[in-house]
Amino acid sequence: MQIPQFDIAFTHATLLTANAAQPELRDATIAIADGRIAWIGQTLPEHAQCKRVVDASGKVITPGFVNVHTHSILTMVRGVAADLGFAPSYTPGIPKGTQVTPEQARVLARLGALEALMFGSTLIGDNFVCADATTEAMAELGMRLTPSWRIHDVDFGKVTEGRWEYSADIGHTLLQAGLDLADRWQSHPLVDVQLAAHAVDTCSDDFLREIAAISSERGLRVNTHLGQSKVEVERVLARTGKSSTEVLDSVGLLNDRLLCGHCIYVGDEDIVRLANAGAHVVHIPKCNATSGRLAPIHRLKQAGANIALATDTQHGDMVELMRWALMTARVQQGGVNDDWQPHHVFHMATLGGAAAVGQADRIGSLETGKAADLVMFDFRKPHLTPHTNPLGTLVHTGQGRDVEMVLVNGEILVENGMPTRVDMGEVCAEAEQVCQSLWNNV
Ligand SMILES: [Zn+2]
């Protein structure tokens, strides 16, 4: 008889699995071997040997959250940019990506990624400048990444002055940087590089066509900002006579490898087009609401589009974000109904995200055989008591700060709420210094 061997087992846990066949298990055991979930049951199998057993009484274990659209470097404008305009890259008077050195980018990326990890994101889809430096810094934390270099052929320096001028030189330099990033990380088990066509207004039609051809040839996923602002919609309409969604379709980008961030300004025809193409909607409710807008998310959901969640430039707390997704949809719907319940937003934060990054077969739910990306919350707290309906409680009153442990691929990256690979105080102090120098030079 073969004796089951596990690296770590959690016993007496409440499991919120995100697996529709068995969404909740109480007083259960989940065990991990070789980076994978090897066992889920009420107790451990007979004669099992575990290197470590964690008594998870009073704890709730969920899949790791999949946060598909972040810009860790933009932690540099925290506390200011949210009150100025709709997106930092278009807003004058604040530090810009183009001013950040690779070393500063490394420090800021570590801050943003660490924050997301400590709040339970096991994958972030980070996109911005200096992606070679930031990907390295984020990978050091041990988390799963779908990084991308911000690619556009507009001269961003002139956009804040109201001029959209396209340069083949800018486009090709950035596209090459994006492809070099993909080459460099090709064989890394936790990193899957995407191409980031920044937005339809900041990429010319020809350039978008080129990105589409490369995406299809190399099977690389593409992320973009779609219908993010009225400025984008007006610029694109004036330039092409089409909506941004129509342009994406006409250049060959609208397919199931595309992740569309925001989707605020999309019309009924765009919604049908998006859903039919299998493109993924990246819902960013907190960031959108902060700038006074919301995506027509119910219509996108009704059309059958896969929906993932992302924190974008807001702080990386996916627990709080699930609440924003639920509450803003209810405000739009004018009440509580069966279409918007905690399990819907939990799905978006886990399996929906996993599907968007093309990894639903590997991550996004607690199922044997999947990677051991999981988050343990300590529910022995006043705001998380009673445990009548743990998912409802997590979505309505939980916080990223309630995360006690985070594992990615079976490795413990957060324990007792603190990172295991880096010194949190050092990460914050370094980032504080970088931000002060960037703000001093605005
Ligand atoms: Zn964004």
UniProtKB/TrEMBL annotation:
Keyword terms, alphabetized: Hydrolase
Amidohydrolase-related domain segment(s): 60-412
Superkingdom as given in the UniProt entry: Bacteria
Sequence intervals crossing the membrane: none
Hydrolase is among the record's keywords: yes
Key word Hydrolase present: yes
InterPro entries to which the protein is assigned, alphabetical: Amidohydro-rel (IPR006680), Metal-dep_hydrolase_composite (IPR011059), Metal_Hydrolase (IPR032466), MTA/SAH_deaminase (IPR050287)
Listed SUPFAM superfamilies: Composite domain of metallo-dependent hydrolases, Metallo-dependent hydrolases
GO molecular-function term, one example from the UniProt record: hydrolase activity, acting on carbon-nitrogen (but not peptide) bonds
Pfam families noted in UniProt: Amidohydro_1
Family stated for the protein in its record: Belongs to the metallo-dependent hydrolases superfamily. ATZ/TRZ family.
The protein's name: 5-methylthioadenosine/S-adenosylhomocysteine deaminase
Organism whose genome encodes this protein: Paraburkholderia susongensis
